[in-house]
Design a protein that fits this description.
By secondary structure, the chain is mainly alpha-helical. It has helices at about 1-25, 30-55, 60, 65-95. Helix content is about 90%, strand content about 0%. Helix 1 runs antiparallel to helix 2 and helix 2 (about 30-55) runs antiparallel to helix 4 (about 65-95). The protein is elongated.
Length: about 100
Amino acid sequence: MWAILIPVLIIAFVMYIGAAIIASVWGKEVLGGRVLIADGVVLFVLSITFQIVAGGSDAVFSVDRYDVFGFLTIVLPPLVAGSLFLACHRNSKKGMAS
């Protein structure tokens, strides 16, 4: 299980940092936001998959506080950051049109 988990987390981390650099340094908020949202979705699917692999289908419905903490610290930040980048792009384009 660790042989799969470590490379996937490294790839997700590279996507997360790369998307932030793309959005903030190069000014491509839409691309960076979409990559961050995709990264959050991949991490969410990965966490659900590992819960099923580790504890069966019953583990998905028996969530403890560590699962919630993991969700809030791993999955939620890229989703929020991607949404904020897309909202920033939309607001900057709306301000230019007015």
